[in-house]
Structures are given as C-alpha cells and as structure tokens.
Amino acid sequence: MFNKLYEKIKEIIKENYLFICFYFVLIAICFYPLPYYIYSGGGTIDVSDRLEIEDSYESKGSYHLCYVSELRATIPSYLIAKILPSWDLVPMEDVSLNDEETEEDIVIRDKIFLNDANMNAISVAFQKAGKTFTITDTKNYIIYIDEKAKTDLKIGDNIQAVDQIPLNNLSELQQIVQGKEVGDKLTFEVERDGEIVACEAEVFEQEKRKYVGISLQTNFIYETDPKVELHFSETEAGPSGGLMLTLSIYDQLIEEDITKGRKIAGTGTIDKDGNVGSIGGVKYKLAGAVKEGSDVFIVPNGENYEECIKLQKEKDYDIEIIGVSTFDEALEKLK
C-alpha cells in the first residue's frame, strides 16, 4: 500500500514538476520580506474605545487618535509602491537605529514608547485636573543597544539591578559605569518574558567617556483616583497618540465639555511636563482625519503644522488645523 502511494506521488511530481517549482518560487517572491517599510493612508480611532475612567464626565463630541498604515515590503508590494503615489517606501535603516536591529526589536521599542506616552498622558491630565495619582512601580527598559556593545542584553529587557545594586534610572547606571575600568564586566539582573535573567555587559570608552552601549527608557506605573483603564491592541504602538489621549483623559475628569460637540482628531507626542513633540507620517494622519469627517485636526507646531497647512491649501481640505507646542496651548485653543 505504501509503495503504491509512493510511486503515485513520484509520478505526480514528475508530471507536474515545472508547475510545482513555479508555485514555490511564486510563494517565495510574494512573501519574502524586503528591507523596506511601506507607509500609506491611515484613519482615526475614537479614544473612548481605548479609554475607560470611573465616574467620568461625558462629552458631546469626541477625540480621535490618528494612525498610519504600515507594512513590511515584499516584491509585489514594493512594485505597487513604485506606481502608487500614495504609498511611500522607507528603507529599514531609516526605521531601525543600527544594522544589528531586527524587526522584532523595532516593534518592542515602539511598544515601550506607547506605554511611556500613555503614562505621561495620565500624569499630565491628572495634574491639570487636580486629581490624585501615585507612582506604584518603575520600569527601566532597554530601548537601544549600540553596535559596539559587548553584551547579551536585549531590547525590551527591564533592568532590575546592576552588580546587585537596584537600579532606579539611567543616571544611576551612568554613575556605576563611570566608576568602572575599561574592559570591566557589569552583571545585570533583568526581567525578560516574565522571568529574571542574568546578563553581562563590558565597559568600553568612546570620546573619553565610558559606556556599556545601552539606552534606557524609564516608564512609570500609576495608581489613580478615579481609576483609569487603557485598552490598546497588540498591533498598536508608538508615542504619537500621547496628546490626544491626554486631552481625552482630562476632558473626562472635569465637568466642562472641551469638545463642544466637535469631532477632534490629532497627533503629537506628550512628555511628563506637557510638551508636545513632532511625529512622522503627518500627511497620512491629516488625510485620515479628513476622510473620517473630523472638524478639527491638532498637530505639533513647526514642520508638522507647516506641512499640514500646505496640504490643506493644495488639496482643499475642509478641516480646521490647530498647531500647538504644549498641552496647555491645546486646551486654550480648543476652548
């Protein structure tokens, strides 16, 4: 029985080997990743779908995060991007920070940036609204590893201790490193995938300063009153929704309705002091806001704002564009 089946399979392969080879070549062409990302038109997400606050005040209008559609290029999508003016090809080296980084490293870093933006949004909104929040935990994530680094640390590791000394922030790590000799090895205790892992990093010198070749992002975890819950999906990442999340949280904490019934879309990072930072892909985000019928588009001042005003004139976009540099300025202009 087995021999007959084997002979039958051999016969089928012999008769169709050209088609089978063509099929596998086609599969390889269609799915083999190229060192490019493709950015195309985005859309908006109602912040209320990602945010839940106890005993919050309701608004007649709404706040919307803007996003850009992003995908890793393959040969077919690369060729399409060369034809379609609305698809932009971006080399992977423009997205990664060095040649050693993987696509997974980039995703992990963007997740860390999203968490940081979310916590900054909570702290800024709660301070402005006069509400209570306290720090319950601090996480020091590795977001970059230099090509010169001699280490088994990974992007996304949460550092607990260095040479058995608990670590609170980057400056403490810098002080420990400066007290070592070139060639010394530091031992790191890190949280990785829910487990505690021991790692090492060797001290090296560059421009008369000592390094181990890593950069950290300190993320704070807050306990708030009233309680805040965030519900971002696994595919969402990056810090560009920070400003809009801050506005939405603040509006739900106070009685006044800042939206005044408007559909407000926007983009921009937010730091712990309420400063608004520029973002990439603003033309796609503005187009998405217009497509979704937004009344207002809030954007960081500077190049982002200037690009939006230029696009508004060129494409005759029917939307009010507001440029801001701080959270307070965004509130003032919306009011």
Describe the structure.
It is a single chain. The chain has 335 residues and is an alpha+beta fold. It folds into three domains: 1-29; 41-71 and 123-130 and 228-334, 2-Layer Sandwich (Ribosomal Protein S5, domain 2); 138-218, Roll (Pdz3 Domain), CATH 2.30.42. It has helices at residues 2-31, 75-83, 92-95, 103-129, 170-178, 242-253, 282-291, 303-315, 327-334, and strands at residues 36-46, 51-53, 62-72, 88-91, 132-145, 158-162, 165-166, 185-192, 195-202, 204-206, 209-211, 214-225, 228-230, 263-266, 269-270, 276-277, 296-300, 320-324. α4 packs parallel to α6 (242-253). The radius of gyration is 25 Å and the shape is globular. The termini are far apart. The model has no long low-confidence stretch (mean pLDDT 89).
